[in-house]
Design goal:
GO biological process, one term: protein import into nucleus
Oligomer: single chain
Strand content: under 5%
Shape: globular
Keywords: Cytoplasm, Nucleus, Protein transport, Repeat, Transport
Largest sheet: 2 strands, antiparallel
GO molecular function: small GTPase binding
Radius of gyration: 35 Å
Protein name: Importin N-terminal domain-containing protein
Number of strands: 2
Helix content: over 70%
Main location: cytoplasm
Amino acid sequence: MVCDCCDWQATKQLKVLLNDRGVVPALCSVLITSRNLQVRQYAAIILRKKLSRAKQWNSLSLDIAMNIRANILQVLLQEPEKGVRKAVVQLIATVAKHELASVKWPELFEFIQQYTHSNLPEQRELGMYVLSAVAATATKQLQPYFPSLLELCGVTLKDNQNYMVPFHTIQTLTEMAPLIETCELNPFQGLIPQILRVISWLVEVDGEKAVEALEIFDELVESDISVIVPHLKTILEFCLNIGATQGLGNGVRIKALSFVSWLVRLKKKAIPKLNLIQPMLSMLFPILCEAPSEKTDDDEDFDEAHTAPAFVASVIDVMALHLPPEQFITPLMKFVEPAMTNSDENVRRAAYVALAVSAEGCADYMKHRYLEKLLQYVYSGLGDSSVSVRNVSLFAVGQFSEHLQPDISKFSSELLPILFNYLNTASHDINKDLRGVNKTYYALEVFCENLGKDIIPYLSSLMTYLMTSLQSTSSVHAKELVISAIGATANAAEDAMVPYFPQIIEELKKYLNPTETESELKVQLQALDTLSVLARTMKKEHFQPLANECVHLGLMLLDKNNDPDLRRCVFGLFSAVSTLLKTDMQPCLAIIVRQMIESVKSTEGLTVHYSEEESRLYHLFDEDIDEDEDADDADEKIQGMTVENSYLDEKADACTSLGELSLETGTAFLSYTDECFREVMKLLDFPAANIRKSSITAVCQFCCATAQVARETTVAEAQTTLQFMLSRAVPKYLKIIMDDPERQVAMVTLEMLGKMLQNVGRPIVQAEGMLDSILICVKNVLQHRATSQDTNGDMDEEESEYDIMMVENAGEVIPCVAKLVSPQDFCSYLVGLLPELLRRTRPNSTTAEKSFAVGILAEIIEACGNTIASFAQHLHPVFMTLSKDDDEEVRSNAVFAMGVLLANSGESMYSYYDETVKNLFAVLNHEMDPRVIDNTISTLCRMILTNGCIINLAEVLPVILQCLPLKADFEENHTVYLCLAQLYSSEVPAIMELLPKVIRITAQVLGTDQITVDVHTLLVNLIEDINRKRPLDLKSYIADLPADLTANLKKQVDIFRH
């Protein structure tokens, strides 16, 4: 084994020898007697591997086991070589794992006690090194000794002569931390100040050891026992100080800052409670302002940052995502605003970075309070003299465009000309400012993609520029950027791209042939992505002729190239084309699904890392693991694993594409559903969060697709498969919601659960106990009891926008369930859920909370029907109050909810009608928002439909007609015009006097996209009925209309065509 040239021969011989009963004594002898240090080292490692499992250790004779215990410590003391000593210490730890539980090795503790209290620094180091190794390998076996070990650590942490002694002490405590119990809490907490002192020492003398020592805080912050809480502020300040010290290496600075980020994630309620946000920003912002190193890219990925300033951007991002926006943005702006005019370009650059990375987490707060100011900053930054500042300003435009919608789109007339001009300037010489071109296209793409149909006024000039650039540029990278921008434009403009479609396809075809060069492959990937976008956005008649050609193109590319990014893009093309081909994809479905399943199952791109010595030895121990053995034993030889991002992206997109294929191809996919479901279910516990999210989505799509097939066909397999999938998927979803540490994974799962309830329906809640389980889970999320929520804070404290979004996702499940069970059954659950919703309608609740809660209550009321009457008197005053809220969305939701409440509560609420009408009139007297006005009108109409006899129609109807046609919430047209039609049918005098206005309003809305077919028919019938009963009156009403309305009425109503 020592000689590389015969490694395979030695491995083969050793495999045979390891099955010999005498191999353990022989290896012990080699360890003691060999003069070759490598031989001794390998002997120790092989012994440890051979004895790692309890079954192997217990199979030794008592004499051999006793001999090992009696001599191994002496071997350690006599061994002069460091590498061999390390291997022997690991062997001691393995023996300790087997022997400590039965208290068979008192000599080990005597050794540790003697050497950790020695007068010689090197002996104290050895004693603590042995203890740290034992703690790492035999943590559970050491647990009964924790009290005495904590006392010992209190002594060894104070060692001032040899920093390795307290370093190994911290290693020991790090291993103990996950198993600390309440009785050991105080002793452990008492060690924190000493731990901080030691790490400060390590920072000065050995940065790598300091990084490793800082791991203890990661363990402590995740501990079930709150060891860290009393020292939270001190530890946070300590790590911030390390992060802010420019003389230190990036490794230790980033490690300290990563703990700050992790702490914000896990203790987000404690940060504002301890008033730490402003002090944190006062330390973080100057780091962000440091001059970037020459090797640092302006657009360095903050999640994989290699410098402290770049990493700080990710810390600020995490703060924005997890802290209440009002408490975070306000102090942040105190640093950003003066920085904008600072003479140092690095300070100005930092200001834009801070705003850009905060946009996702604090979107609502920023767009409602700072949008115009942010845009002024952007305009200024785009004209800055510094290239670095201009580029990061473009990054900010992209972030704002993505997250501050739809508000920022209102400024398209200001922003787009600036971006077009900037694009022209930056593209003249792409090689001079590649980053600038990248950032410009990024900003343009994101802004345009989120504009939707509002891009149409700019479409001609934009497409002219993009097509000219694509045809004229010789830069492969520029082609990639332009093709990507075309895809983003198509996403926004949809069928408005039809005039450009033939030319785009002809250009894309140039890049779709198999290629081997990396630069050309990047262009091909982008061409495939853009082709997928066109398949989704073009009308069927335009892309359908290309659909089968695209399938064959994808299969050919998969056959010619084994690149994971190419497979990912081809999978996306298949799923896009399936929206057109539907069941016609069946001839190719078998090979497509097989390719995708292979990607789902693949371990390609996975690299397992071993230590240098053990990488040569692990093949000796590749036998199967017994089920009753500790699974950790199997992984002892593995130091870590990495997976290339491209393979993770491929796996995620394979899941997404399989899910969409199942939905789009229906019965054609059914025979593949079971295998796809089983394989994707295995990924629900995958380490990477994006894989979990994609697999959760795909599982939902499989269930929804199979339910659709079961409803539309008599295929018995569909019903059987559906029952099987639901029995596995729904309980797993509920577990993920409660236990997954990533908030976004839990949010996606709640969203998919809601979709399954909507699309699969009753089979979900009919399963035994499932109704209870779903609503208990939802209530737990509303009460912040999920793992991804901060369960230690006061629920009445302010929350981050994403925390509120998770609660919203949970709340949206409630009306989905309410629609699937009888109103009587659901109301028994509503008693427990209602307080959680009403708690979010208090005056101190955020706008988002109030809007969400009222919206969900309105949906619940509609689902419950007249059984809601027993709750009406509690809900009515809430809606009355919120109809006067400062936010228009809250007001709109409140008046709508009031209408559905009164419509469904019947007689029990008649006594509240006068009060309600007065309140609604007060709303209309000062309301400017069209949606609020529309919903107020629809509420009045619902009240009339419920019991118009107790309403002063002569007073109310003129007000209603004055506000028609509706301006924003066209879904309410049905309620409004049904009300008017019924009043006319009943020949209510108040409406008869207002028929001229009714006719005018009808002429305005007929033939528009504001009304549905049903409403159109309702209004046409109304006109025809008036014509039958009052033809002369109708003729005079029409004569008074403007010519355009008269023409429209005659066009839309048949009686006027004859």
